[in-house]
Design a protein that fits this description.
The complex is a heterodimer of chains A (394) and B (390). Chain A has helices spanning 2-13, 15-51, 71-77, 115-118, 126-134, 143-149, 190-200, 222-235, 248-257, 262-291, 293-302, 306-338, 356-383, 386-391; strands at residues 54-59, 67-68, 85-93, 107-110, 138-140, 156-159, 169-175, 186-189, 211-212, 214-219, 243-247. By secondary structure, chain A is of the alpha+beta class. Chain A folds into 2 domains: 2-46 and 260-391, no CATH class; 61-241, no CATH class. Chain B has 390 residues and is an alpha+beta fold. The model of chain B has no long low-confidence stretch (mean pLDDT 88). Classes of the chains: A alpha+beta (394), B alpha+beta (390).
Chain lengths: 394, 390
């Protein structure tokens, strides 16, 4: 009991110092939580990609070289039973932006018949699929994109594609895909888009239709995924358009790593900020020790063991950093779950979802910081030579 | 009368542990700030160094970048009518038809896999139009020969682009082009590219069109007049100056600057708290000393000033060390995939004067914010009481 009272007294003895230390620990923890949330978001997205058992077929030369649309039928013919390859969907990158707005949208034109099956994880409702099938101008917009521009189901929207014909194209929103793993990307129908292209570009220039940028192949099992990864490339070997087939996770990872290598760099950032927090906390603990040397010496001479003093200083560090950690973890959690900030989008692929588990981790790390920061002060307290400490009394 | 700087220095040395720890906190802050900003500075520097305001780039109407622009030959040929196109000394029009395609090339050192590198098909005239491009090693590719020149940024960042190496290009990646030269573009975006003879590239990639037409406007002629002409009814293509084109491409890095600003301000606030903590401890530990100084005649202002100087001393040295550390990472090449061009831009991390200014400003603010409250407390020390407690 005495020890608890003593601990409490110690923490409240210099309230300002306690508060400043808590803040100095809490702010790096905030950065840690935010970085971890982004990394988690990316990981989760990748894990979902892996779970979907989809292969992505692209041109071997580069991602944006076109593949003949006829490849879809050839890939489907690899499995006439239809039990190992569940569905195949070709897509073309459209990009796009709104009029008088330089922000680039992420839009794909997808082959409409197989899209809902290949991307079952988008969990479109029956009505949405029906609307998608019925309306050639249908577009499924990412929920974050929809939120950003205030688009709702039923709206007519105009978009200027980033590829020929570069003229405004009209779409009708049929879904804002509330359950889709990717909150940003929009999907329109390839047949409609090709028709738009055909109407504008003179056909003799260049092949403007009958090609796709990517082909997504949904497989039935992990074994099928591994098998067709090679079988598809083998099928198109030594043709004018050779392919490169990877599973969706590998494909997305490659893209993510080209965006400032975010997962790696954020990990480094998080590690450095934790280091800063350790320094700040260690500073306070060593100052506390200095201020109380004579007191600790007195305690020792009264008969308290070195171990008790060790434990006292350690616990003080733990409490101090524990409070800082809680503050640092709860602030972003509350901010990104219960305030308008929750609509905030990370520019790349995910919106920020601060999970309780990340916050728990952060508090754990804060406690660790407390332990590390107090190592040297508590060890000094343990070894404190009573006589010389009392002699140095000012 | 002010206290000598020496007094502050000795005080810092007396409380060595806490001075060093505070110093480390601020130094790491500066390091992170400088490195994060150097990413965006590198991208910006590269894009800002690209192109000339006297060069006009012509794209398909509505296209946002060369890689997604399709200009058919009959459209491209109309560009020569534009007013004010400069001529070379030998009388040729300084107008270059260019084809932009991509190829996948692994990065050096085997980290992060393949990068989508831009390949530009050019005629000989391109070297006259893009005056910033200078061959620094080897020679220009000969038209009609399977030869390429590579930008020095591309050579440094991607594998197997040394002089004499062969690089596979084309729709099938089955055409071996030999690297016969390396060029420098004064740090601009073109340095991330591979240049090949256009006619061969057209065939290798089966693209019977060009991506852009770049021309130089005569000295004295109006650039905007040429642009208006191209946009007008007789040509109907998109035109802008090269500088404007690269400016638009760099808009993406503005988002990054925002993110960095938020991160750094959170960290800076934390560092200010850490500094404040140290300074409060310094004031509390020296009450008697302060009272003594007051007794011998130093004013409140002088004492306040002294504590602020002490905090700034830590922060400024930390700033210097942090910047010094960040210099270690500068010059390393990074690349990023633009979502407008779908090709990678290899850039160098650079510490610019603006970054140094940002670092100095931040540390000064941290030092001031951290010292202000403690210094006020020091100035308010009650002389008699503090001396009596001794």
């Amino acid at each position: 009991m005495l020890r608890l009272v003593y601990l409490y007294k110690n923490l409240t003895r210099n309230v300002l110092r306690t508060l400043l230390t808590c803040a100095a620990v809490a702010l790096p923890i905030v950065i840690y939580v935010l970085s971890a949330a982004v990394i988690n978001g990316i990981d989760e997205f990748l894990d979902n990609s892996a779970k979907q058992l989809r292969l992505v077929v692209t041109h071997r030369a580069s991602v944006i070289s076109p593949l003949p649309a006829g490849y879809r039928a050839k890939i489907e013919s690899l499995d006439p039973t239809g039990k190992r390859i569940l569905s195949v969907c070709g897509m073309r990158w459209v990009g796009g932006r709104r009029e008088n707005d330089s922000r680039i949208l992420s839009t794909m034109a997808a082959q409409p018949d197989t899209f809902p099956y290949t991307f079952a994880d988008y969990q479109l409702t029956e009505e949405e699929v029906a609307a998608w099938n019925r309306d050639r101008q249908a577009i499924i917009v990412g929920r974050a994109t929809a939120g950003q521009f205030g688009w709702n189901v039923g709206d007519r929207i105009t978009m200027i594609p980033s590829v020929p014909p570069y003229t405004p194209v009209e779409f009708r929103v049929v879904s804002t895909a509330p359950l889709a793993p990717d909150p940003i990307t929009n999907f329109c129908r390839l047949d409609y888009f090709e028709e738009v292209v055909r109407s504008v570009i003179p056909p003799e220039g260049w092949k403007t239709d009958e090609w796709v940028s990517f082909i997504f192949v949904k497989c039935a099992s992990k074994e099928d995924l591994d098998y067709f990864r090679q079988a598809i490339d083998a099928l198109f070997a030594r043709t004018p358009d050779e392919t490169k087939t990877q599973d969706e996770k590998a494909f997305v990872t490659e893209y993510v790593n080209q965006q400032f290598n975010l997962p790696r760099n954020l990990t480094i950032l998080a590690a450095v900020t934790v280091f800063v927090a350790i320094m700040a906390a260690a500073n306070t603990m060593s100052m506390n020790l200095r201020d109380r040397l004579n007191e600790l010496a007195t305690l020792k001479s009264l008969g308290f063991s070195g171990r008790t003093l060790f434990a006292l200083v350690q616990t003080e560090g733990l409490i101090l950093c524990g409070i800082g950690g809680l503050l640092g973890a709860l602030t972003p959690y509350v901010a990104f779950t219960h305030t308008p900030l929750r609509d905030f989008q990370v520019p790349l692929i995910v919106h920020l979802d601060v999970r309780p588990i990340v916050c728990a981790q952060a508090v754990g790390i804060a406690l660790l910081i407390g332990v590390v920061a107090a190592v040297w002060p508590s060890w000094s307290a343990y070894r404190l030579p009573v006589v010389s400490a009392l002699r140095n009394l000012e | 009368m002010t206290l000598p700087l020496y007094y502050n220095w000795r005080n810092l040395l007396r409380r060595r542990t806490s001075s060093v720890l505070t110093f480390v906190v601020v130094a790491v802050l500066v390091f992170i700030l400088a490195v994060l900003l150097s990413f965006t500075a590198g991208i910006r520097a590269s894009l800002a160094a690209s192109g000339s305001s006297r060069n006009v780039i012509v794209l398909a109407q509505g296209a946002t970048s060369e890689s997604t622009s399709v200009v058919l030959p009959q459209e491209a040929s109309r560009v020569v009518q534009a007013p004010g196109i400069a001529r070379s000394p030998s009388g040729e029009l300084l107008l270059s038809h260019e084809l932009c395609v991509q190829t996948s090339i692994p990065r050096r050192g085997g980290d992060g896999g393949l990068a989508n590198v831009a390949v530009r098909g050019v005629d000989d005239i391109a070297f006259e139009v893009h005056t910033e491009v200078q061959i620094v090693e080897g020679r220009r590719p000969r038209q009609g020969a399977m030869e390429v020149v590579v930008g020095d940024a591309a050579r440094d960042r991607y594998a197997n682009l040394e002089l004499g190496n062969e690089v596979s290009l084309g729709r099938l990646e089955n055409r071996a082009y030999q690297v016969v030269g390396v060029f420098d573009a004064q740090g601009g975006a073109l340095e991330s590219e591979i240049w090949a003879p256009r006619t061969l590239l057209t065939d290798s990639y089966n693209r019977p069109f060009v991506s852009s037409v770049v021309f130089r406007v005569e000295d004295g002629a109006s650039v905007s007049q040429a642009i208006d002409y191209i946009r007008g009814p007789s040509v109907q293509l998109e035109a802008k100056t090269e500088t404007a084109y690269y400016e638009e491409l760099s808009s993406r890095s503005a988002e990054l600057v925002w993110l960095v600003t938020i991160l750094v301000s959170i960290m800076a606030t934390g560092a200010a708290f850490a500094v404040a903590n140290t300074m409060f401890a310094a004031v509390d530990g020296r009450r008697r000393e302060i009272a003594m100084l007051r007794t011998v005649g130093f004013s409140r202002a002088a004492i306040m000033f002294s504590f602020v100087i002490e905090s700034l001393l830590i922060c400024t040295t930390a700033c210097v060390v942090g910047l010094g550390l960040s210099l270690l990472v500068t010059g390393t090449r990074q690349d990023f995939l633009s979502d407008t061009t779908w090709t990678v831009l290899a850039y160098e991390l650079t510490i610019t004067p603006r970054i140094v200014a940002a670092a100095v400003t931040t540390t000064t603010l941290v030092g001031l914010a951290g010292a202000l409250a403690p210094a006020l407390r020091a100035a308010r020390v009650q002389v008699i009481e503090a001396l009596r407690k001794a």
